[in-house]
Amino acid sequence: xxxxxxxxxxxGNIDAFILRVLLDADNYGYxxxxxxxxxxxxRFELKEPTLYSSLRRLEQQGLIRSYWGQETxxxxxxxxxxxxxxxxxxxxxxxxxxxxxxxxxVLIGDGxxxxxxxxxx
Amino acid sequence: xxxxxxxxxxxGNIDAFILRVLLDADNYGYxxxxxxxxxxxxRFELKEPTLYSSLRRLEQQGLIRSYWGQETxxxxxxxxxxxxxxxxxxxxxxxxxxxxxxxxxVLIGDGxxxxxxxxxx
DNA sequence: AATATTACTTTGACAGACATAGTTATATGC
DNA sequence: GCATATAACTATGTCTGTCAAAGTAATATT
Lengths: 121, 121
Known about the structure:
The structure is a homodimer.
Chain A: H1 14-24, E1 27-28, H2 29-39, H3 48-60, E2 64-68, E3 78-82, H4 84-108
Antiparallel strand pairs in A: 1-3, 2-3
The structure holds a DNA duplex.
């Protein structure tokens, strides 16, 4: 399984990924990981420490709130829900990504000068 | 001037930016910064310590080589040139970016659920 | 002479992602 | 019933890339 070396290239977007999932519905940690795995077609795997430290950060910033689900059986689950601020923040994050993507696209080029052999000037 | 908070969202792509510039022509540090500023329409500003530590890293990895320009007057300039490995590495970096971009696009959404008011489910 | 600009360098701090490990509970296999 | 696997969350510490701050040295400008 390949996935992609994660870290640097997705850095800064993980908070947005989580907010995006919570935009659809309240959810709990483990399921958020699964959900991101599914949505990415198995190409992205969010690690647990990364997830839970993100969640803590987001909660401290008032972008999400948490509550314990009342499971009658099975392990406890802490659910997270978006706050209005979180909703707003996602919008901003989304726009920032659009802007960053455009800049990176320009600076990294469109791949025309790659071809197969080498680059002629 | 706004530019964009840099760091996290472009992280991991800076090496590729530099390699991309050197793909066009040998160049020296200060000019690479200028070049990236121009290509991005002033929206991206590479900081000096970031540039020079990137250059050192790239040189250690054998992706670029350096030589002092023989300026008869004016300050000394250390020029950098791509090695074949560097050329190859740029290709890889480029492809990694394409892959990462696709995944991020999926996970952050297309913005349909943003609209203006709020999201209806 | 003072200031600005070009060009490169050093040091240290910060923050996000993750490896490693551990805890608690339920479910499953033998 | 005991071992193992899996679900779900938590804690600790490390690594790496980016950048702020500051400095050096030379030329150009006022």
